[in-house]
Amino acid sequence: MQLWLIPILPLAGFLINGLFGRRFSKSLVHTVAVGSVALAFAWVLKTLFGLGELHTAYSEHYFTWIQSGTFAVQCDFSVDRLTAVMLLVVTGVGSLIHIYSIGYMAHEGGYYRFFAYMNLFMFFMLTLVLAANYLVLFVGWEGVGLCSYLLIGFYFDKKFATDAGNKAFIVNRIGDFGFSLAIFYMVRHFGSLDFATVFAKAPSAPESVLTIIGLLLLVGACGKSAQLPLYVWLPDAMAGPTPVSALIHAATMVTAGVYMTARSWAIYTHAPAAMSAIAIMGIATAFFAATIGITQYDIKKVFAYSTVSQLGYMFVGVGCGAFSAGIYHLMTHAFFKALLFLGSGAVIHALSGEQDMRNMGGLRKYTPWTCWTMFCASLAIAGFPFTSGFLSKDAILLAANHSAPWIYWVGTLTAGMTAFYVFRAFFMTFFGEYRGHEHHPHEAPLSMRIPLVILAALSLGGGYLFKVPEFLRQVFPTYEVPEDTGLMLIASSAGIIGILLAYLMYVARPAIPESIAASLDGLYTLVYNKYFVDEIYGAAVVTPVVSGSRAVLWKGMDAGLIDGTVNGVGVVARGVGSVLRLMQSGNIRSYATWVAFGGVLLIVAMGIAGGLR
Amino acid sequence: MAQVPVSWFLSLSAVLFVLGVAGFVFRRNIITVFMSIELMLNAVNLSFVTFAYQRQAVDAHLFVFFVMVVAAAEAAVGLAIILTVFKNRATLNIDEVDSMKN
């Protein structure tokens, strides 16, 4: 079936644009970039139709990558139903965002560079989801991290953008450290990294081993998917262009952690402690990030914290054993969150770069397409009944209630807050009076509107189009939760209450938010400053590491020990030489003196040794 | 007739040798230095001959002849060099003949 074609097509696009794009016209650059991704999407569709029902995984072997004794790593790709969902999401949403970028990036410099990086990202992301063993997955995992870094720092002449890129890369290193430890441990314990082998051996392995592997994998997922305590890089990652935020930091890359944990279900189902850790981490992140989202004014920051929060939901689903619900939410989230970011990108585009919602308002009149497509996405993320978001969030919350009711209640509260902050952003942007400085807010061009409309349709109906839980039933262990209409009503009414509250506070009575903020001054300051987490990390981790490196590693080890040793050898040699140099005077009589002196010394030595009898 | 003890010869040899060394080290005049070298050679010759006499063996005489031949050749070459140096530089001070040093 030539699975390798799927990632190779974007790679070819990357190579063409990366090597020659500087000399291409803009239309040629985006034809190559969008074309390669669209071709990959077409090839995914053709492959999936060709493979039919996919009751068993379909694999292709290319070559042996590493062979060391009995341990071997193959370069293999495989497709099962889980991969199929991921492939469709990545290439489908990826194609739409590439099309959108044509309009969004039209006036930006570095056009070819942007599209080359985007194509490279698609290559690594597709490698990640197609991989048939953990090491190939890790290659994709690191590759998407690299592209994330490159694209966050796309505006490399801005200090905050390069700082944000560095932050994303370094924080991800912590997670990747855990992931690589998990890989080493798997090699040691299972002697293989193939999914099939590892998962076949997992049930007979001791629970302690599986728990350790599970927790280490979770550390990796936690870094890549921006969960507590490693979420700090994602809000800063909004320094990149908005299509990047939509593709990498909302729809695909950050969900790689969810995909990886769901893929490792055979390990987690035998390690209940690790499962609970996932669920608790997920719900804590979901709640924590939602509270921050309520207070932010930067439209992209609101959606960034929303992404962190929604990723927490996915982990709740995975951690409660409802793997398919987590993947379901992954897919619907890809639709509506990509749309929210693309929509906010259209707003920013309309206002020529303005991101502060206090300088927006009333844009409904100027940008109706953006307004109403974003309305669809907002409804979906709020879990409004019968939207895609409602279906997937409901599946997660039901599973949560089944394993631990308190998670359900926190999740429901979070759902209410989610609805509130998303509609707060929506109303602040599109309703009320226009407060901006740009005199002619303009609607997005056609290339940006088409993806918005398609994604809006998917946000509302995508969950019905692709019934992921049923599709994935045979991939994951059976997990049946009885339908519970009461719980469903509570959760969706929490969402509706959130929407109404937002309407009340930001459209009907705009004075309320300020009075609440004033009455809860301390709490508001705390949340508005994101709980000072960045400052705490800075004081607790960054400063000690930097000053420790400076004092011990630089001044002590490098300048002191290493330079000291090298310079010391030189100083000793010079010292000895400066003494010996005096002997080589060029004065023949001093040489003769030395010879005489030596002769006397020799005779004395002979005398002492008994030479003279 | 009482024999002169061997140690007297050797002491004379040592004294001559030390005189040669001292002359070589402390004098500046090239010719004096040259003569000091000859003096050292002959001091050594004296000790050779002394030992040959003591052991009643002729081997050491052989060495003495060699030394004398070499010293004669050296004297010829050395004096020629000294003459040339003096012709070129109008000095016999050994410290002033140091163009190799710089």
Beta strand count of chain B: 0
CATH class of the domain at 28-90 in chain B: Mainly Alpha
CATH topology of the domain at 28-90 in chain B: Helix Hairpins
Mean pLDDT across the residues of chain B is 89
Portion of residues within helices of chain B:
over 70%
Separation of termini of chain A?
102 Å
Question: Radius of gyration of chain B over alpha carbons?
Answer: 17 Å
Please give the most extensive interface between any two protein chains, plus how many residues each contributes.
Answer: A-B, 7 and 9 residues
SSE series of chain B? HHH
Which stretches of chain B of 5+ consecutive residues score pLDDT under 50? none
Shape of chain B: elongated
Please, how many helices of chain A?
Answer: 25
Low-confidence stretches of chain A: none
Strand order in the largest sheet of chain A = 1-2
Biggest beta sheet summary of chain B: none
What class, by secondary structure content of chain A? mainly alpha
Oligomer designation: heterodimer
Query: What percent of residues of chain A adopt helix (DSSP H or I)?
Result: over 70%
Question: How would you portray this structure in words?
Answer:
- The complex is a heterodimer of chains A (613) and B (102).
- Chain A is mostly helical.
- Chain A has helices at residues 5-20, 26-51, 81-104, 111-130, 134-152, 159-190, 195-201, 207-224, 233-236, 242-251, 256-263, 265-268, 272-295, 299-319, 323-350, 368-381, 388-403, 405-430, 446-465, 468-471, 485-508, 512-519, 521-528, 533-581, 588-608, and strands at residues 58-68, 71-79.
- In chain A, strands 1-2 form a two-stranded antiparallel ribbon.
- In chain A, strand 1 (58-68) and strand 2 (71-79) form a beta hairpin.
- In chain A, helix 16 (368-381) packs parallel to helix 19 and helix 18 (405-430) runs parallel beside helix 21.
- Chain A is globular.
- The relative contact order of chain A is 0.07.
- The mean pLDDT of chain A is 89.
- Chain B has a domain at 28-90: Helix Hairpins.
- The mean pLDDT of chain B is 89.
- Chain B is elongated.
- In chain B, helix 1 (6-26) packs antiparallel against helix 2 (30-55) and helix 2 runs antiparallel to helix 3 (59-89).
- Chain B has three helices and no strands.
- By secondary structure, chain B is mainly α.
- The interface between A and B is small, with 7 and 9 residues.
